[in-house]
Amino acid sequence: MEAEITSRAGFIKRNANATKPFYAYVSFSLFHFPTLPNPEFVGKTGNGDWADCLAEMDYRTGQILDAIKEAGIEENTIVMFASDNGPEATHPWEGDSEPWRGRISRRWKPHYGRRSFIRMESFVPAPTLDFPGLKAMLEKYQAKAPSLGIDPLGYGFTPFAYAAGQVVAQAVEATKSLDHDKLAHYIRSHKFSTVAGEIAFGKDGEWTKSRQFFTQFQGVSGNDLAQFRDTAHQVILWPPEYKTGNIIYPYQARRRSKTGWVGAKMRDADPIRRIADEIALMLRGRASRRSR
User: Fold this and answer.
1) Cβ-proximal residues to 243 (8 Å cutoff; 6+ apart), any chain
2) Is residue 116 a contact partner of residue 82, using CB atoms and an 8 Å limit?
3) Which neighbouring-strand residues pair with 238?
4) Is 246 helix (H, G, I), strand (E, B) or coil?
5) Does one domain contain both 217 and 115?
6) 8 A C-beta contact, residue 248 and residue 218
7) Are residues 10 and 67 in the same domain?
8) Which entry of 123, 147, 251, 283 is 20 to 30 Å from 11 by CA?
9) DSSP H or E run through 82
């Protein structure tokens, strides 16, 4: 099914070419049991079907991200990767939810408290992005935002909106002019110090160096907005120069082995054989009870 889903990625390019905003909800069947990979991925990892499925999902997700990049909208597209449900309880596909209680279809943290990734070109309240003037600007914004009924934190767009004004102000001051052509030429040929960091533009009007982040929300609890005012709950995973934390994999404490987190909790490599073994054990148990 995943191969069929990603084969329809042309939808992305068609909308991009038509300059139409779009929303795409991509629902993979992996890793719902039975955990069976596409034949193309069977045996790829050497750690069984579950690991092969993980390798396939990584590949399929990459195909979608590649389609976004090839369509030329990589820096103007929000990508969110998330998982629902909790560990399966059906043998031989069962998982482990430690340290939390519960499993799939149960109203406990493992069912609803999923990990997620968000990729977008935006601002993250991180120590590596603490540029001059930023803190004072955000404090002033956040003091007024509640009474105006707007975004109370302003992390997403406020720094860039303010930075845009700084760019124009610096260009006007340097050229001593309001002529659009002079300002455009100056902006394309100089660097600017802003609350969003140093900015420089290329001939196409885009930044000469993109600043797109891979981030992960970590340790989020309840709906308390205050927890998002610090830098601990949304860490930057990539790029390295802005990195503020390490990725947390689902149940990583239970998935440690010499083969890495993928190989540690894979159960047996052959789930069909495990089913046969369990049936054999069950039948032997019944025979034993009858003999009594």
Assistant:
1) 128, 236, 237
2) yes
3) 214
4) coil
5) yes
6) yes
7) yes
8) 123
9) strand 79-82
For residue 100, give the amino acid letter: W
Q: DSSP letters of 136-201?
A: HHHHHHHHHHHHHTS-SS-TTTHHHHHHHHHHHHHHHHHHT---HHHHHHHHHHSEEEETTEEEEB
Residues 6+ apart with CB under 8 A from 122: 155, 156, 157, 160, 213
Residue with tokens 């025979």: 287
Residue 128 lies in a domain: no
Q: Are 194 and 265 in a shared domain?
A: no
- pTM as predicted: 0.52
Distances (CA, A) of 269 to 31, 89, 94, 252, 260: 16, 18, 14, 20, 16
Q: How many residues are present in the chain?
A: 292
pLDDT in tens, 127-166: 999 999 999 999 999 999 999 988 898 887 899 899 999 9
| Residue 1, Cβ density class (10 Å: 0-12 exposed, 13-18 middle, ≥19 buried) | exposed
Query: What is the three-class DSSP state of 80?
Result: strand
Residues 215, 79 share a domain: yes
pLDDT tens track for 194-234: 999 999 998 778 888 877 787 888 888 877 888 888 778 88
Distance CA 44, CA 63 (A): 18
For the chain, report the end-to-end CA distance as a whole number of angstroms: 49
